[in-house]
Amino acid sequence: MDSITHLDGKAAIVTGATGGIGAVIARALAEAGAAVTVVGRRSEAGEAVVKDLPRASFVAADLTDRDSHRRVVDTTIDRFGRLDILVNNAAAHTSGPAIQGTEEDFDRIVALNYKAAFFLTQAALPALIASGAGRIVNISSIGTIKTFWGAAIYNSSKAALDNLTRTWALEHGADGVRVNAVNPGIVIDGPMSAPVQAFLDIERDVLPTIPARRLATAADVAAVVTFLAGPGADYLNGVIVPLDGGLTA
Ligand SMILES: NC(=O)c1ccc[n+]([C@@H]2O[C@H](COP(=O)([O-])OP(=O)(O)OC[C@H]3O[C@@H](n4cnc5c(N)ncnc54)[C@H](OP(=O)(O)O)[C@@H]3O)[C@@H](O)[C@H]2O)c1
Q1: Which of 21, 114, 144, 179: disulfide with 218, CB 3.0–4.6 Å?
Q2: Number of domains in the chain
Q3: Active site residue 235
Q4: Residue 148 is part of a domain; what is its CATH number?
């Protein structure tokens, strides 16, 4: 296996690839040789990601709309002839104590982080099975392993995604599909962590708790996703990877 181009000939969907971490994941998969469908609602951001990649196309989609799922999968197959890799990365977040959580925030976050990932995966599975080496990588959060204050709705939606990761691994392992999750801690260049970084004194309160003494980067996430998407991870299935510099060790 050529470790640089180990995804040559593969086609991937990356949701939330108009955003910080998703764009870096899309680039890493493309650098490893995959054709990539970049998914998000913001067309300008999506086109900007796609223009720097050798084989990529943007599909504008609000993934809380059930009709978008088949369209994302069908467009990928129309453009690239196949689908091998699905990265469920799109997500929404809210901050605040659980006792103040609103139904509106609950429905918005569950609709994207859990329900959209469920039904997009369901739509993608026939093509991933047909691939013979289908790969699903779910971007979860360290908050499912070590919970933290002020993110009850978000963390529990990601915990549901972790559970789906294991269920899909169990139900489709024999079809050649591998399903794993990456659970990052605070990602320094991940836009979703901006409120947390503004709220916490990272240097004083967070870094001493992380054995690696640094926050994660989007590149750290992309490196693990690229590995999980490739042939080197063929015997990893149903695994939740804490990408936390040893925080939960
Ligand atoms: N940043 C961190 O510290 C951190 C830590 C642990 C885990 N994570 C996880 O990493 C992933 C990426 O986070 P990030 O920091 O890169 O955040 P981000 O930049 O806000 O990315 C979120 C992405 O989701 C997309 N999205 C939001 N609502 C959508 C909808 N209804 N339909 C389709 N796409 C939608 C956004 O694109 P549009 O606005 O274009 O739709 C955007 O591309 C998330 O799963 C997050 O939970 C992040």
Answers
A1: 21
A2: 1
A3: no
A4: 3.40.50.720
Task: Find residue 182's DSSP bridge partners.
Answer: 139, 241
pLDDT at 2 over 70: no
Over residues 164-180, the pLDDT tens digits come to 999 999 999 999 999 99
Instruction: For residue range 203-245, list pLDDT tens digits in order.
Output: 999 999 999 999 999 999 999 999 999 999 999 999 999 999 9
Q: Is residue 19 part of a domain?
A: yes
Calculate the average pLDDT of the chain.
Answer: 96
Domain span at residue 223 reads 11-190+217-243
Catalytic pick among 154, 187, 192, 230: 154
How far is it, in rounded angstroms, from Cα 156 to Cα 110? 9
Would you say 178 and 236 are in contact if contact means Cβ atoms under 8 Å apart? yes
* 110-to-56, 97, 99 alpha-carbon distances in Å: 29, 17, 17
Which residue out of 13, 14, 18 has the highest number of ligand 1 atoms within 8 Å of its CB and is therefore the one to mutate?
18
Q: Cβ of 98: how many Cβ atoms within 10 Å?
A: 12
